[in-house]
């Protein structure tokens, strides 16, 4: 991979996206990271994303604002819906309708502007919350759309949607990140982290994260309230 090749990396500030950024850089890409201020209750992840991007020395980090509170329907965007702290049946209320579709669409626009043929996203279909937009079928379908809907695709520049964590467990993701020097103390994964980025330790995301560190045999650097 040429070290002059550009890539757009969706960087939420969480454990998975920080690992994806390190993976893209290890592969030799010049990385343009993108975070989304979409009205999420755990806004401290935006500060985490900025800090991770700065430490990694990305070419550019930007925050794109979208108010998904107007759509509602999710505990992450509607304060009247409580974040669940116990597992349940079906897709949980922390699912944000169409979030990854919207995020990837905007990242696709950024990729056209910065002449990037690769977009990296940290979706995972093994240790995850059951979201429909984290499945391999979704990534395959969006990849096809990306090459139909863009000037770059029409002109023969193949757009690649990269999901390097798709088939990894949380344990494997953490092991990979540690090998790449990811500082997980900088990351925020909690769905209801406070303004200082401290985790609740009880939500689904916190539970998956804690179990991943335990199984990987890595000390959990998460700051809990």
Automatic annotation (TrEMBL):
Print the keywords alphabetically. ATP-binding, Ligase, Metal-binding, Nucleotide-binding, Queuosine biosynthesis, Zinc
Q: How is the cofactor bound?
A: Binds 1 zinc ion per subunit.
**InterPro entries from the entry?**
QueC, Rossmann-like_a/b/a_fold
Positions bound to ATP: 11-21
Q: Which GO terms describe its molecular function?
A: ATP binding; ligase activity, forming carbon-nitrogen bonds; zinc ion binding
User: Which pathway does it serve?
Assistant: Purine metabolism; 7-cyano-7-deazaguanine biosynthesis
GO terms, biological process:
tRNA queuosine(34) biosynthetic process
Q: Which residues bind Zn(2+)?
A: 190, 200, 203, 206
| EC identifiers of the protein | 6.3.4.20
The reply to whether Zinc figures as a keyword in the UniProt entry is yes
Catalyses which reaction?
7-carboxy-7-carbaguanine + NH4(+) + 2 ATP = 7-cyano-7-carbaguanine + 2 AMP + 2 diphosphate + 2 H(+)
Required co-factor(s) are: Zn(2+)
Name this polypeptide is given: 7-cyano-7-deazaguanine synthase
**What's the source species for this entry?**
Gammaproteobacteria bacterium LSUCC0057
The root-end lineage is: Bacteria, Pseudomonadati, Pseudomonadota, Gammaproteobacteria, Cellvibrionales
What is the primary gene name for this protein? queC
